[in-house]
Amino acid sequence: MSGLFSLPREEVAPGAVHVPGWLSAEQQRELVVVCREWARGPVPIRRTKLPGGGVMSVRSVGVGWHWQPYRYSRTADDVNGARVAAFPDWLADLGRRALVDAYLDEHAADGYAPDAGLINFYGGDARMGMHQDREERSGAPVVSLSIGDSCVFRFGNTENRGRPYRDVELGSGDLFVFGGPSRFAYHGVPKVRPGTGDPATGLAGGRLNITLRVTGLG
């Protein structure tokens, strides 16, 4: 990444910022490698079952904490009972640098200590419905990183799943941060654009999304 104040950015809503091209090609390749390691275990990547009986179209794996609707746990009792991989310090450092660059404030990451990472892999037909990230007991910002195929990212309001919302094109290497007044905004991915990614990232197809969160669970 090029550092503070040097990349184009757009405030999509108060506290919600899009920074295109934040990750370098090398950083993307490194993240793809480590995400593949996490996908193999100790808790393997899977499609999450929803309380109503449906199954999500994205495949997910967590580090630090295991996520399932609508809670976190240290062990993946709905998969294989294993304890999830530890949340690495370098990933927390990456999250702090993301906040500084997104908010153009060298103090934006003061006290920010993400302890959960959710890795979602989207195939060409995968979607994510409008939802809020409310499992956390913290109002700290969410940091989202995209690698591979671009997507339409729908960023809405804090009251409901409908309008007003804004559709943002997220490409490979893009950073999106939402905190403050937008921390609990509804958001989703209605469309992935197959074939738009660069195989040089190490991802031949599909979209990889990595989100960093502060659970507040101790």
Automatic annotation (TrEMBL):
Residues that coordinate or bind Fe cation: 131, 133, 187
Under PROSITE patterns, the record lists:
FE2OG_OXY
Q: Which SUPFAM superfamilies match?
A: Clavaminate synthase-like
What Enzyme Commission number(s) appear in the record?
1.14.11.33
A Pfam match is 2OG-FeII_Oxy_2
Enzyme type, top EC level: oxidoreductase
Q: Which domain of life is it from?
A: Bacteria
Can you name this protein?
Alkylated DNA repair protein (DNA oxidative demethylase)
